[in-house]
Structure formats: structure tokens, C-alpha cells
Amino acid sequence: MKKILITGGAGFIGSHVVRLFVTKYPQYQIVNLDKLTYAGNLANLTDIENAPNYTFVKGDIVDADFIDNLFTEHQFDGVIHLAAESHVDRSITDPMAFVMTNVIGTCNLLNAAKTSWKDKMEGKRFYHVSTDEVYGELHNPEEFFLETTPYDPRSPYSASKASSDHFVRAYGSTYKLPVVITNCSNNYGPNHFPEKLLPLIIHNILHNKPLPVYGKGENVRDWLFVVDHARAIDTVFHDGKIGDTYNIGGFNEWKNIDIVMLVCKTMDEKLGREAGTSEKLITYVTDRAGHDLRYAIDATKIMNELGWKPSLQFEEGLEKTVDWFLNNQEWLDNVTSGNYQKYYTEMYTNR
């Protein structure tokens, strides 16, 4: 029976990965390690929290001794590493938090895996989940990020992820650690923390609050439904080539302002509001420092080599996302109010 460590499994993407692995692979023991910072929410996993092959552990990947002891106790066969500080705005105001979690925390996991697997690398895998932001900005409208695109990070967040990517590759090269990396575009879908664009817009429309849009809203991103990303992670974890990198994207490029307008239209229809009501809430704000204009992923490699492809186009995925938030307003209210943290903080205080 394989034991798989999934870090950051109470977060947005991580919770979807945990759910997929717990339900699809009953023969695996899944250990979900999460610090339960503001972005970690165990309410994302209530449907599988009592599964016999699932264990939650509260802890910090920055604590090297804790990580070493965890590996000694569980003797993991694989690691899927998603734990990260991920919000660009927060990285601008507090870059050192991103250095500690994204760089030091990743190195602690690499060291623990190296020690634990020293004499038995066969059958093991260290999977590092990264971002397309490490590649920097695309200036040519016909250009896409490839796995061979040189790194050019522009924010403290992307710089910390680029650094962690380099450490993962270095451990693969130096210590022959069986590593694999994926770089993914923007995710969206259920359980998305409402500091990010889509859930923030949905929440603010519900409460008739301003809809902040950076600059003129011309920034372009490629969007991928989070369940499709979880499927890609499953595919790469099992079938990806050791030492390789795979870009994961949705082939769905959208300007921010066009996304906001589409959410407004969709929400007005679903809430029975007069067309154009929500658009009046759009408020243009000063652009973010170092805001890259365009990211776009070429996911040809993972499609051709591993047979994965996104299942949803953006309009369909967006409607599913809006429906989920409208049907789970208590979840959204608990997150925006901070109430979601109180219960789990008390539960794990003495553990």
C-alpha cells in the first residue's frame, strides 16, 4: 500500500487533488499536510474527511525537524507538493513569507525525501507543482510558454516559485532524486479563496460591492478549471517521465475585463437582476506593481505524451463555478468573515 504525502491539501487546488486521490485510489494512504493558514480550509474536504485511507496532519513545511519526523513516521512513497504562498499582492507586501514557505519549505521536503529514499529511489516520486508565472511576460501575441522557455520571474511570488523549481531540478541532478515538475496557468472553480479574481467578483456582486479591476483590465491570462488540473496532476504523478517538466494549461486566454463582464452577465441572469446591473459596480483601480500583461501556456507536451487534455471551455467552467458559489454561500460567507478558521484552530490547538 503506497503512502502519498500531499502538501497544501486544504487549499484550493490541493483539496481537489486530495479528493481525487482519496476517492480514486482506495489502495493508497493519503496524508494531507497543511499549516491551515488563511488559505487552508478543511471545510473543503468534509466529504472525505472520514475516509479510511485519509489522514490530515497540521504542520508547517518550514519546520525541518517536523518534516523529517513526518517522513520517518510514515515512510512516504511519493510527495505531491502544492503547499505555497501564492497571492502576488501579498508577496509584494511581505516577500519574506514567500521565501520561507516556497523556497525553504520546499528544500526541507527535498532533504527529507533524499534522506528517506537514499537507498531505495525506485518507485518513489517527488512531484513539485509550480506556476506559469516563473516564465515572466509574453510580448509577442503569437508566443506561448513552453517547457523550454527561460525563466524571467517578475514578482516576489514568481521569484520564490522559480527558486523552488531550480532546487527541485538540482536535487534531481545532484542526488538522483526522482522529481517531476508542472507549471500551470490560472485555476478557477469551486472552493476558490475569495482574494482571487473570480470568487472576489462573485462575492462582491452578491453583496453589491465595487468590482475592482487593475488598470484597464487588459491583462491576459490562460484559465484552467481546477478539476482538470487535478486530473493532470494525477496523470503526471503516475505517468510523467522522471526529471521532466510539463506545462498545464486550458487554452483559454481571456482579458481580465472580459472575464469580469462575463461574470457580471452570468450573475445578473442567475440572480434575476436587470441586465447590466452588476457592470455598474466595476471600479478601475491603480494597477499592481510589476503586473505582467500576458501569460499563455502551450500544453502540447502533456497532451501528446500523456494523453491529458482539459475537459471544459471557460464559459462552461465559469457557469459551473458561479453555480457552486451560489449554492454554497455559507461557505463563502464563512471564508470572507474568517469564521472558518475559528473551528479548526480550536480543533488542532492541542495537537
Describe the structure.
The strands form three sheets. A seven-stranded parallel beta sheet has the order 3-2-1-4-5-6-10, sandwiched between helices. It is α/β, with parallel strands linked by helices and about 350 residues long. The protein has helices spanning about 10-25, 65-75, 90-95, 95-115, 155-175, 195-205, 225-240, 255-270, 300-305, 315-325, 330-335, 340-350; strands at about 5, 30-35, 55-60, 80, 125-130, 180-185, 185-190, 210-215, 220-225, 245-250, 255, 280-285. It has twelve helices and twelve strands. Strand 5, helix 5 and strand 6 form a beta-alpha-beta unit. Helix 6 packs parallel to helix 8 (about 255-270). The model has no long low-confidence stretch (mean pLDDT about 95). Helices cover about 45% and strands about 15% of the residues. The longest helix is centred in the N-terminal third of the chain and has 22 residues, at about 95-115. The chain has a domain at about 5-190 and about 225-255 and about 295-315: Rossmann fold (3-Layer(aba) Sandwich).
Q: What is the topological layout?
A:
Layout: E1 3-7, H1 12-24, E2 29-34, E3 54-58, H2 64-74, E4 78-81, H3 88-93, H4 95-116, E5 125-131, H5 156-175, E6 179-184, E7 186-188, H6 197-206, E8 211-214, E9 220-225, H7 226-239, E10 245-248, E11 253-255, H8 256-271, E12 282-285, H9 300-306, H10 314-327, H11 329-337, H12 339-348
